[in-house]
Design a protein that fits this description.
Elements (H helix, E strand, L loop, with lengths): L4 E7 L4 E7 L7 E6 L7 E6 L2 E6 L5 H15 L4 E8 L10 E2 L2 H9 L8 H14 L5 E5 L9 H4 L5 H7 L8 H15 L7 E7 L3 E7 L2 E5 L22 H9 L3 H10 L2 H6 L5 H9 L3 H21 L8 E5 H6 L1 H9 L10 H6 L6 E2 L8 E3 L4 H14 L1
Parallel strand pairs: 1-6, 6-8, 9-12, 12-14
Antiparallel strand pairs: 1-2, 2-3, 3-4, 4-5, 7-8, 9-10, 10-11, 13-14
Bound molecules: adenosine-5'-diphosphate.
The site of adenosine-5'-diphosphate (ADP) has 13 residues, from α10 and α12.
Length: about 400
């Protein structure tokens, strides 16, 4: 059987990230992003065999942008495109695994949009465009929340009156599940442990950040909740704040719900604390130059992250390793060092040289000799989505 290719699509409200994933080769045959869709300066950037190209597509919507890259994708796949895998952020309690897209599953994703009004409608735009452009290809949805459907009830319930859960789905769901599955399987492979008989703490640190406790191949707790706002400090999201902050801001400053939502999701986190940037590279450079806001943002980020990991350790019977992943987790030796320094009670300690050199896509252990394992494992959500898509096609 010729090797198979899956197109992976991750759609935002004004962007589409795409990657052509080959089942046997790690590097993407083709990958890119269409951004600022719907505006005059909409454009698509892609790379193939190390060559980068861009094209302006004024006023292109999701479908027009996908139609533009379609011939490139088909050529790169050598007419061996077997299916399309879509990232969908929220699957609610309905989806405990990836599913084939048909009218019923699309209706269920639409019904879940009340839980993720910023994300699921955008994901559906990509699904709709792809089905119209590739009507004969099987298409699959892979959910960020699905991996966390194994959380025990004591981890997923909020201390709120039960009808809010039973009638309105107010509970903790968790996100980044595709990444957690990928890196914890990789960690088990790297260490020779069985995935289904190993226990991991994981910190996924990208623009969004969260932590997870994984036991015997299942998520047992995670820091994000009903929405991706709960938990640790992120690029522009606050993470945990006192829930009364909402009423405090409304009462004392007269702020609307929309203003408070924008504050907590788009103006807080590293950006809000530093007053400078949501980008960790920028903050590390500014800290070097003595910028007080950047220094504080990094201190708060690491302390809150360590606190969250310590909390997650309650869900583990033993610790086989702490995994760092995501752009910050894979590249920032500083953040890893400062976070682990707060976790002495877990006996964690890093080897400075291994920590400094395990960056830019390198994977491996970075703990000091005689201390519990700490691993850097680059995530690859696109690959996991492609593997899930192929598994469903084979089923
Ligand atoms: P996304 O969640 O959008 O996929 P990424 O996983 O790419 O995001 O992570 C983006 C974050 O990773 C940014 O804060 C960026 O500054 C950070 N990052 C990337 N490279 C480095 C680096 N060398 N040092 C520190 N932070 C880095």
């Amino acid at each position: 059987m010729p090797a198979r290719n899956i197109l992976v699509i991750n759609c935002g409200s004004s962007s589409i990230k795409f990657a052509l994933v080959h089942e046997d080769h790690e590097p993407f045959a083709l990958s890119g992003i269409a951004e600022r869709l719907g505006s005059t300066d909409a454009q698509v950037h892609w790379q193939q065999d190390g060559n980068k190209q861009s094209l302006l597509l004024p006023h292109a919507d999701h479908r027009a942008a996908l139609a533009q890259v379609l011939p490139l994708i088909q050529a790169a796949a050598g007419d061996q495109l077997q299916g399309i895998g879509h990232r969908v952020v929220h699957g609610g309690e309905h989806f405990t695994a990836a599913c084939l897209l048909d009218n019923a599953s699309i209706a269920a994703i639409r019904a879940t949009a009340t839980l993720a009004p910023l994300h699921n409608p955008a994901n559906l735009l990509g699904i709709d465009a792809a089905i119209k452009l590739f009507p004969s290809l099987p298409q699959v949805a892979v959910f960020d929340t699905a991996f966390h459907q194994t959380l025990p009830e004591h981890a997923y319930r909020y201390a709120l009156p039960e009808p809010l859960y039973r009638e309105h789905g107010v509970r903790r769901y968790g996100f980044h599940g595709t990444s957690y599955r990928f890196v914890s399987q990789r960690a088990a492979e790297m260490t020779g442990l069985a995935f289904t008989a190993s226990s991991w703490l994981v910190a996924h640190l990208g623009n969004g950040c969260s932590t997870c406790a994984i036991v015997d191949g299942q998520s047992r707790d995670t820091s994000m909740g009903l929405t991706p706002l709960e938990g640790v400090v992120m690029g522009t999201r606050s993470g945990d704040v006192d829930p009364n902050l909402h009423s405090h801001l409304a009462r004392t400053l007269g702020w609307s719900l929309e203003q408070i939502e924008t504050l907590l999701n788009k103006e807080s986190g590293l950006l809000g604390l530093s007053g400078l940037s949501n980008d960790m590279r920028t903050l590390e450079q500014a800290r070097e130059q003595g910028h007080t806001g950047a220094t504080l943002a990094i201190e708060v980020f690491c302390y809150r992250l360590a606190k969250s990991l310590a909390a997650m350790s309650c869900a583990l019977p033993q610790l086989d390793g702490l995994i760092f992943t995501g752009g910050i987790g894979e590249n920032s030796a500083l953040i890893r060092r400062k976070t682990v320094a707060h976790l002495k009670l877990l006996n964690l300690s890093l080897d400075d040289q291994a920590n400094a050199s395990t960056v830019r896509g390198a994977a491996g252990p970075i703990q000091a000799h005689g201390h519990p394992r700490v691993l850097v494992v680059p995530t690859n959500e696109e690959r996991q989505i492609a593997l899930d898509t192929l598994a469903l096609l084979d089923a």
